Amino acid sequence: MPSITRRTLLGTLAAGAAVGVAGCSSSCPDGDPPEPSVLVDDIASGAFETLPDGSWPQPRFDAANTGHAPVQPPTDSPTLRWRTTLPAPSVDGIGAGASSPTVADGRVYVTTAEGAVALSLRDGTERWRHETAPATGVPTAHGDGLLVPTADGLAELAAGDGSRRWIADVEATLPAVADGTVVAGDEETVALDAASGDRLWSASVRAEFHPVVADGAVFLGTDGRLVGLGLDDGRERWAIDRGGGRTFSAPVVTPETAYTVERPGEAGDATFALGRDGDGTPEPRWCSYVGDGAVTAAAGGHAFALRSGATDRRLVTFTERFGEATWGYATADRTLPPAVLDGGVVIVTRRGTVAAVGGT
Amino acid sequence: MWPPSDRVFGGLTAVGGLCTVVATLPTRWLGPRPTDSYVFDPPRFSALWVERAVVPAVAVAAALLILTGLLALFRRDRERMARWQRWFAVVAVVGVAVGTLATMLVVSAGSGGTADPTAALNVLAGVGLGLLGLLLALPGLVAWGAGYLRSGRRRLGAALAGGPVVTLAVLVANVGAGVSFDGVGGLPIALPVALAVGVVGYDLWDRAGTA
Q: Which of A37, A134, A255, A281 lies 20 to 30 angstroms, CA to CA, from B181?
């Protein structure tokens, strides 16, 4: 009898340990960082001869926060076109750093703790600088204006010369806007009428990141699940739970694929590509270990993921179907979500280095 | 009709040798194979699909057929073996059986199964049993083969004793000395085994009814 008890105890301990470890680990079987086929050389090859087409007017490309741009970014033989460094001082000893870039009408807009800066997309030269109020968020190109969250409120600057048009005492967030509905997330997820501001519905789902709207569905990365709500009524349509209380980042949503990053408690992050089939639950297509990172954009059959680990910080592009890493751009400090254009990608690091990558 | 003749077991054993080679062929020879990410549902007949669906089944078949061949060889020759050779043969067969069980456990976990606790335990148990099987099979086969060499059956003796030794030497060169077999996968390790298994199969076939 004692031996049976011991055996049972040891078996239980072994199974418990395995379950415990599995609960903290990633559900992605891939355990090696991706090795991009091409690592972009850090030597600038010169200004764009042909300016990249398209724009990246908002932090997540569109008002719905999908992160998906209908453009063809450079995929073969990408080269560094130009690089410049903006002063990105810290505020009260906290490293506020630079914002991710937005691009419109041949200009790259970046905010820092000193204000907003406009650079030429062609060669990175500075066009204007607005320094009246420290910026606190990512600029959003809006018609001929630029919405900038600042310490004083939400400001609109003229895109042409950077002069301030108005400022509103509004705490800036990153809501998603689609089909006349504004979706914002806090303790609960709320939908407002874009025209009147009236509340349309609320759902008791707490998003860890900003909401994303695509094809009538609201995608929410939460603690433990990736959730899909109906945009019209806020009812839960589907949920992906890969066990172990793993957090999912805000997804990037294309017509065929939803990309997200799974964040387990005690292990490295993993990029997931989930195949979309109508309104059904997205199915895992591929996953790749990223260590510490995020997927922030998708274009031209590629996803753009950030690796933000202590030793290996880089932007990596993955193919949509099989998750092959096609190219990467290594940076000295943390890379921010890029702006993806037709034939070009603009990358900003936290300390204010702005770089543009184009095809040969 | 039952039990089947040694000729049938000889044929099955030879197929086991062939399966050993097939299971260790580099799947990238069959086409491009994504390596940067884990693909959940690879297209049918792609290199990745072959690796996930075909190779595990072939590997288990190879292990079972090799075990079958060794059992048939032991059954055929046990009356003529010296006492010490018989005991080493038993140890070798037990070692290969344990190795077969290890193969099944590892294969049951799948290529990305370590995230699942049950599969992780299976892999752990499989690796442990594999090492145990190796410890039993290696001296068992060498001594069993040495017995055949002493009795003048040099081809069979060389296969049983030499196959595992050459395989171990290749393994040591790969892991210990860092000799790379990048382009050919597990073939350098599997080929000596497959050749030895082929010889055992041929011997069973050739001497059926005469031994």
A: A37
Q: Is residue B97 part of a domain?
A: yes
Domain that holds residue B106: 6-206
- B40 is a domain residue: yes
Which tokens go with B197?
């298994």
Which among B38, B116, B121 has the least Cβ separation from residue A14? B121
Q: Tokens 């076939």 identify what position?
A: B205
In a domain, B211, yes or no: no
- What are phi and psi for residue A326, nearest 5 degrees? -85, -45
**CB-based contact A29 B36, cutoff 8 Å:** no
Residues in chain B predicted with pLDDT less than 70, given as ranges, are 1-2, 111-116, 209-211
| CATH code of the domain occupying A176-209+211-249 | 2.40.128.630
- Interface residues of A toward B, Cβ cutoff 8 Å, are 14-15, 18-19, 21-22, 25-30, 34-36, 271, 273, 283-288, 318, 322-325
CA-to-CA distance for A232 and A308, rounded, in angstroms?
36
Q: Rounded to whole angstroms, how far apart are CA atoms A233 and A189?
A: 12
CATH class, domain A38-174+250-358, is: mainly beta
Q: What is the pTM of this model?
A: 0.76
Q: How many domains are there within chain B?
A: 1
**Residue numbers in B near A19 (CB within 8 A):** 117
